[in-house]
Amino acid sequence: MQIEIKKISPDEAEEKIDINIKTWYTTYKGILPIEVIDKCQAKTKERIEKEKEAIKEKNNIYGMYVDNKLVGYASYGAARDEKYKGSGEIISCYILEEYQHHHLGRKVVIKILDDLIEEGYQTMITRCLVGNPSNRFHASIGGKIVGQGTINLQGDEFAENIYYHKDLKKSLKLNQVKEKSIIKEEENRLVYLLDEEEIGEVEYKIIGDKTVDIYHTYVDPDYQGLQIASILMTELFKKLQKENLKVIASCSYANHWLKKHPEYRNN
Ligand SMILES: CC(C)(COP(=O)(O)OP(=O)(O)OC[C@H]1O[C@@H](n2cnc3c(N)ncnc32)[C@H](O)[C@@H]1OP(=O)(O)O)[C@@H](O)C(=O)NCCC(=O)NCCS
Fold first, then answer.
1. Cα 108 to middle of ligand 1, angstroms
2. Strands of the sheet with 156-165, listed across from one edge
3. Buried-most residue among 43, 141, 177, 234 (CB within 10 A)?
4. Mind listing the domains of the chain with CATH numbers?
5. What is the CA(32)–ligand 1 centre distance, in A?
6. pLDDT tens across 23-63, in order?
7. How far, in Å, CA of 189 to CA of 191, rounded?
8. Ligand 1 neighbour 63 (Cβ under 6 A)
9. What is the C-alpha to C-alpha distance for residues 195 and 130, in angstroms, rounded to an integer?
């Protein structure tokens, strides 16, 4: 599966609208009244022309391509709500149902965060209709719910959750770590790698018959607060459990982690 994320062109206006229509029906049926979806999603020549002009003018829409086929898109810009003036916003993000949950969403978010930071934004909001399972996505990319607003669709108001990112650089790191990092096993050591750079490690040594001591855990200060140490611990304890090794933890972090995870004690 070859994945590419790049700005869409005006010629793709109709395809973008088709994705919007299909995804609205698969996502919002049962959440919004069907008459509202039908009215919002009428496909007219006028709508296509308007879309073409908007793409030309704003250049703020990324397309997600799988094997050269457009399967989703996301748009961004300045926050539309006066209350969040000065923040950026991911305005829309729609992926055809069969291509959802393959990390295209997180990949496009990384591109958008990069752009917004480049444009000077430090904070961002996203909005998601109450009841949409995709609320989990908005939380997973690092947004915290700060309240609710409403969206007017065909004259009726519908509630939306508002997610706030108070530090875009931190959100970018969180998504890069979730998307691109791997854990590498070395002798008596697990290493957390992002683009081949070491950003975290845990070290242990054999101290007796079937016993190891975890004596050192470290996460690069730029990446602290993203659960990296905890993920490393979980991996290490799973590995040691499989090997039937007992653990003591002279590293204070490992000791603290073990107290919070009794399921791994005395293994
Ligand atoms: C929401 C959407 C853009 C997310 O893109 P995606 O490529 O499917 O999501 P990813 O694979 O990048 O998932 C990233 C994380 O979000 C979570 N997530 C995404 N969609 C989810 C859903 N519907 N329910 C629960 N969790 C979800 C994933 O589990 C993953 O979490 P993890 O990495 O912590 O395990 C996409 O699913 C979509 O188009 N949905 C329908 C339209 C929609 O609701 N758009 C948003 C309007 S506000």
1. 11
2. 3-7, 61-66, 69-78, 88-95, 124-129, 156-165, 144-153
3. 141
4. 3-174 (3.40.630.30), 182-264 (3.40.630.30)
5. 19
6. 999 999 999 999 999 999 999 999 999 999 999 999 899 99
7. 7
8. no
9. 36
- State the Cα–Cα distance between residues 200 and 173, nearest whole angstrom: 14
SS3 content of the chain, % helix, strand, coil (to 5): 40, 35, 25
Query: Measured from the CB, is residue 178 less than 6 Å from ligand 1?
Result: yes
What pLDDT, on the 0 to 100 scale, is given for residue 267?
A: 53
Say yes or no: CB of residue 94 within 6 Å of ligand 1: yes
By most ligand atoms within 8 Å of CB, the mutation choice from 80, 110, 127, 137 for ligand 1 is: 137
Please give the helix or strand (H or E) that residue 99 lies within, else none.
none
Q: How many angstroms separate the alpha carbon of residue 254 from the centre of ligand 1?
A: 32
Give every CB contact of residue 9 below 8 A, 6+ residues apart in sequence: 55
Contact (Cβ atoms closer than 8 angstroms) between residue 247 and residue 240 = yes
What tokens appear for 9 in the block? 């062109």
67 has pLDDT over 60: yes
**What is the value of pTM for the model shown?**
0.88
CA of 136 to the centre of ligand 1 (A): 7
Whether 194 lines ligand 1, by a CB cut-off of 6 Å, is: no
Residue 102 Cβ inside 6 Å of ligand 1? The answer reads: yes
